[in-house]
């Protein structure tokens, strides 16, 4: 039996987003701080009128402060309708959806409701670091699935043979983000359909984190797993939230939708984990998917332009970096091909010498020893300047 | 091994506060709804200027949206100082405190950071229902400790012999609320010192939920476990929050303070459970313990007056009810001495016929078959009227 000591030893938070800048920073550094560990809500502001919606919620008093654990009924109805439209599915507001404190909350509840100790859980590598940490907390047996994101430009590169083999060997749950965090790539329609078929064939439950699915670049096709006929909808939980593209992270709001059985468990679990997403904050969800006309499109274009500039900077030095361009979301996951030190040392120097914060690749899988993640939802010019400094440092630390 | 099915079967939420009114209510009932399952934040409003503090937080943008997982440094400093004063202890803002999404969040993190599967955990009965549910979720072996609250008026009535026997038999964690939820009684200084000594002697960790410790009636003495010399402070986690007396429940804010080792684990756990308490909401904590002069005293007196009226109503019918008067907080836990039906039936009839919501005693321990909990933080006159109707119904359902 794993001891609590071991369990918590593995649960490090030092390099998690929002934590880095607090540790080990040189406060005398004269460079402007650019924190690529998460998006900058000052550069990309929350959906207009979010504060006004919160204030309305506050003034509703009692009725808004004490909602059902799974979220206020009227808000669940509204969101269900919007997400049904967005994903081309039918979400029943009573049975198929829960509002949670952020998508992190939704992910924890979904995994806590589906993982028994010792269960085989397939997790893509690289993928969001909390996936592995939560699975370890629930004492799952993690089966890594490779995402060969440099091997293709038309697919995400998920290794479907490995996945089928894992499913054959008794995997109960498969967990992945689409768009992928940290690479920013999208799973192709062919991949999503293959995943759906395999899950159905081997009776595997799927949790798919679609946090960045509204921020798709170059008018690419995005395929919702939950809309696939090949798989029983009771075997899927999808997760979304307005913390990224919509910059509502300060309100801590997320949703999970899908399987009524799992949603029901998640509500029970939420009752002991946190009761509910903050009542007044829930009111802000009424803006989600009702942004002012053109607002989302403009936000996407602005991010696409930052991506273009950063990617072209990295591509100027293709002897130093491997990079695959972001297809959706705000992440880039460059690899320093000939790094002559550890990624942690590189990341520390970047922070201390250049006042730039990035997330080391090893957070996404121990094999990503030469990679780092950038969230480029930043002030455009500051991001470009920071990348120029980063490239200089990478030159100094390449063989 | 306990299956997920069993685990979630036990995790019912139907009778939990905030849930009852949504299920099985007669919406045509002409009586005014009085929901005693939780306090009414319309009758007792949030600390003045809470919305203004939230708005300030929102306008701080990035810095307030993305705080450290354990809470924004400046806010932890402020609260540490206030709580150090209140409890007469020394809380280090870096090591000994964490801000969480509500006290429910703090409780879940504290238990998740201290319970290994199969550990013996001593839990008072009656006590807050989530204590047992969380312990079951982490697969603890629950050892009940009787609170003989009708046997005394000078103590809480915790059975210290049982407690010592349980500690001797290998209990790792002892968990209790003070003031007690649901009875509203306070542990005496003698009891707290005895608990401290026993915990030290047998090396037991203690989690003490002090949610209602600011709302003490009749100028009674309140003893903070964390201030006792008899016990190593590294063996204690105390939990507080501004959701009750201060009516800030809609913001979902709580804190835990004490053992640096456990706080450190709690931060790691929070990183995968919910990241942090909503950033903007954290700003509201700056009002806690800085309420306008006289505000807290007035709030206490108003609650004391409601308590007096309700208790005297029940005491008029001492053939029908056993009741011990609230010493702190807003709960009463009356027993219907000769109930001729089940408490669930009584509670259902109360809801459907009278539009009154109370929490059945069985939520606090299966032996409390004739008891129910009231949160009397309600409009004074509505509460009195509702109790008159409740007494009539109890008459009809007594032998």
List the helices and strands and how they pair.
2 copies of one chain form a homodimer.
Chain A: H1 4-10, E1 34-35, H2 50-59, H3 62-65, H4 73-87, E2 97-100, H5 102-112, E3 120-125, H6 129-137, E4 141-146, H7 160-168, E5 173-177, H8 189-202, E6 205-209, E7 236-240, E8 254-258, H9 260-273, H10 279-282, H11 295-316, E9 321-322, E10 331-332, E11 335-336, H12 343-354, E12 356-357, E13 359-360, E14 372-375, H13 380-396
Parallel strand pairs in A: 1-12, 3-4, 3-5, 5-6, 6-7
Antiparallel strand pairs in A: 2-8, 7-8, 9-11, 10-14, 13-14
Helix pairs in contact in A: 5-6, 5-9, 7-8, 11-13, 12-13
Most extensive interface: pair and counts?
A: A-B, 66 and 66 residues
> How would you state the average pLDDT of chain A, rounded?
95
Q: What kind of oligomer do you see? A: homodimer
Number of helices of chain A: 13
Number of strands of chain A: 14
Give the proportion of residues in helices of chain A.
Answer: 25-40%
Proportion of residues in β-strands of chain A: 5-15%
Radius of gyration of chain A: 21 Å
Helix-strand topology string of chain A: HEHHHEHEHEHEHEEEHHHEEEHEEEH
**Spatial shape of chain A:** globular
- What kind of sheet is the major sheet of chain A? 7 strands, mixed
Secondary structure class of chain A reads alpha/beta
What does this entry show, briefly?
Two copies of one chain form a homodimer. With 399 residues, chain A is an alpha/beta fold. Chain A is 37% helix and 13% strand.
Q: What labels would you give this structure?
A:
seven-stranded mixed β-sheet; alpha/beta; three-stranded antiparallel β-sheet; 399 residues; 13 helices; globular; homodimer
